[in-house]
């Protein structure tokens, strides 16, 4: 398939809640291939389908040497413990802001064979799972920033994009 272009902030597909995948066919297999090939680059931790212009519930990840995907993911568990740290996004290139996320997250969905998939992790993986599920709900990480930081971020977004 292909490494796909990343949609950037301002593109309406990034603010659209993605539809569930109802049937696995060649189009969905191609989407998964594109998600995996596109995320498999240095500096890329995760990629949601809407970031490549497809409004379906699927994402891929590339965290600590592990490459994978999940269809119809649902965030089913997060820890009460919070991690800080800067977060960035391929759809908001070059901008990183302190973002609070749970230190642990678990996502459940399916694979291309329709079998159940469970993906969980702490640290960067937890951040990735939460970030990509937000994308599929039409939400950018910028909306999670503290009010003062968000104002600064939005100012920078207007200047750059």
TrEMBL record:
Active site residues according to the UniProt entry: 132
Binding residues annotated for Fe cation, in chain numbering: 89, 131, 135
**What keywords is this UniProt entry annotated with?**
Hydrolase, Iron, Metal-binding, Protein biosynthesis
Q: Which reaction does it catalyse?
A: N-terminal N-formyl-L-methionyl-[peptide] + H2O = N-terminal L-methionyl-[peptide] + formate
- Reported cofactor(s): Fe(2+)
Q: Which InterPro entries match?
A: Peptide_deformylase (IPR023635), Peptide_deformylase_sf (IPR036821)
Its BP terms in the Gene Ontology are: translation
Give the superkingdom in one word: Bacteria
UniProt xrefs under CDD domains: Pep_deformylase
Q: Outline what the protein does.
A: Removes the formyl group from the N-terminal Met of newly synthesized proteins. Requires at least a dipeptide for an efficient rate of reaction. N-terminal L-methionine is a prerequisite for activity but the enzyme has broad specificity at other positions.
Record-given protein name: Peptide deformylase
């Amino acid at each position: 398939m292909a490494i796909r272009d990343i949609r950037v902030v301002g593109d309406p597909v990034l603010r659209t809640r993605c539809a569930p995948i109802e049937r696995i066919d060649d189009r969905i297999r191609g989407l998964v291939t594109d998600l995996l090939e596109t995320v498999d680059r240095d500096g890329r931790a995760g990629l949601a389908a809407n970031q490549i212009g497809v409004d379906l519930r699927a994402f891929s990840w590339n965290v600590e040497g592990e490459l994978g995907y999940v269809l119809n993911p649902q965030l089913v568990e997060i820890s009460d413990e919070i991690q800080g740290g800067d977060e960035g996004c391929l759809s908001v290139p070059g901008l990183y802001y302190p973002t609070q996320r749970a230190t642990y997250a678990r996502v459940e969905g399916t694979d291309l064979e329709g079998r159940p998939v469970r993906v969980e992790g702490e640290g960067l993986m937890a951040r990735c799972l939460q970030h990509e599920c937000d994308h599929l709900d039409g939400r950018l990480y910028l909306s999670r920033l503290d009010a003062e930081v968000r104002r600064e971020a939005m100012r920078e977004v207007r200047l750059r994009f």
